[in-house]
Amino acid sequence: MFRLLIALCLLLVVSAPSPLQAQDKVNASKGKSRPAKILPSPMLYGRELLDQWMVATQGVNWMQPRTRAFPGQRLIVALQGRGEGRDQTLKEALLTLKLSFAKKDLSLEGLRPTLVRACKAEGADFVNYVLSATGVSKPEDLQDQLSMVSIALFDLGWSVPADASDGEIGISGTCQAAGKTLQLEQTTLQIESFESAVKSGGFKNQEALGEWIMTYYQHPEPPRLLNAFRIEGDNKNAFAPNTMQFYVEALKASPDTDNALLSRLKDEQRGTRLYGFLMLKEAGFDVSKVITKLSKEDQEAFARVTSQGSVLPDAYDLRVIEGDRVGLPSRLDMLWSIFLATGSAKPVRAIASTLQWREDWKVLQKVKEEYQKTGKGPAQITPELLRALAYGAAGWSLGSFYRNHGLATDY
């Protein structure tokens, strides 16, 4: 039975190829090794992917390339490598690129890869989990076997201009590697101005907004935060700490967005503008000059909300504090909001740190057993019980994000 489970795991990887790995698996099945080869089709990503993959050192899950970008966003180019010795070939690659945008050309020469990462085969995380959990193999020993493609990331050092209009950016060029010059296929990316992104980026309902939030770190769209504020302006749960935390972190990650939002919020409906101004203030932007131009009623409403300073507690403060109005489980939700907004590893590590409270979980189980026997609950809520609740919430949420977010799994 045990061997059958392992066989099924390996079959999952072999039988479900992604477009990146299909051809390599065909050749591998024939028992042939292929020399290193760089593919001519470049992919475009946001600069945030570089920061994310720098942390994920044991191989990474495939991330969907960008199809559009917005003012202020910095871009990177990615190239795929296949075959034996592909990592070293990619590390030695030298790019010469031409960027064409707004009837202007920009030449970039001598670009070296900032980072090279092995890309996991589809289903590899599950195989890794099963084989390492059963002691058959260590996760690091499986990386070469479960990865058939590597990806090199090249930082262009170029950002979409803050005043960019709608248009298309074209990227072409050559790659020199292993003594050969490869002509790259031309790649295009749609650039959307702030106005166009807001106009076309509305949300049908709260559910559609929630789906957008769950993958925001993969494709940040700062202009659409205004569309989100329009939904949240009428949402009773908009002031939940984890909801606000997401918007605050998304704004912090897009500092070029504040002026565009400030100039437009004043013309929005009352609920939208007050909520938007509050999120900007919590993110550290100066909204005082705009607030003084609002109606007296709006100024008083804004003052009531912010009268005691910041409305958001520190999500990373995981101490058990008597009278804490937020509570540990809510702080864990806030940490996940930071991850969803930025893709950062820091909040994931903070959540994982609560797993050290396993002994407190045992205390909760004893309380539960006593209640089942006598019908009596605990005489008081102790710090151990509060940590146990956080431990359970952390374990559940880590499992959920592990299954649904490849980047969280990489971390």
Largest beta sheet, briefly?
Answer: 5 strands, antiparallel
Number of strands: 10
- Going by helix content, strand content and strand pairing, the class is alpha+beta
Shape: flat
Number of helices: 18
Based on CA atoms alone, the radius of gyration comes out at 25 Å
Strand content: 15-25%
Distance between the termini: 31 Å
Average pLDDT for all residues:
85
Note down, in words, how this protein is organized:
By secondary structure, the protein is α+β, with helices and mostly antiparallel strands. Helices cover 45% and strands 18% of the residues. It is built from 18 helices and 10 strands. A hairpin with a 2-residue loop joins strand 5 and strand 6. Helix 1 (2-15) packs antiparallel against helix 5 (124-133). The longest helix has 22 residues, at 383-404.
Helix and strand topology:
Elements: H1 2-15, H2 22-29, E1 37-38, E2 43-46, H3 48-55, E3 68-69, E4 74-82, H4 86-91, E5 94-101, E6 104-111, E7 115-120, H5 124-133, E8 147-159, E9 167-177, E10 180-191, H6 194-200, H7 206-214, H8 225-232, H9 241-252, H10 258-265, H11 270-282, H12 288-291, H13 296-306, H14 328-342, H15 346-353, H16 358-374, H17 383-404, H18 406-410
Parallel strand pairs: 3-10
Antiparallel strand pairs: 1-4, 2-4, 4-8, 5-6, 5-9, 7-8, 9-10
Helix pairs in contact: 1-5, 8-11, 9-14, 10-11, 14-15, 16-17
Features:
alpha+beta; 411 residues; five-stranded antiparallel sheet; 18% strand; five-stranded mixed sheet
What's this, in brief?
This protein has 411 residues and is of the alpha+beta class. It has helices at 2-15, 22-29, 48-55, 86-91, 124-133, 194-200, 206-214, 225-232, 241-252, 258-265, 270-282, 288-291, 296-306, 328-342, 346-353, 358-374, 383-404, 406-410; strands spanning 37-38, 43-46, 68-69, 74-82, 94-101, 104-111, 115-120, 147-159, 167-177, 180-191. It has 18 helices and ten strands.
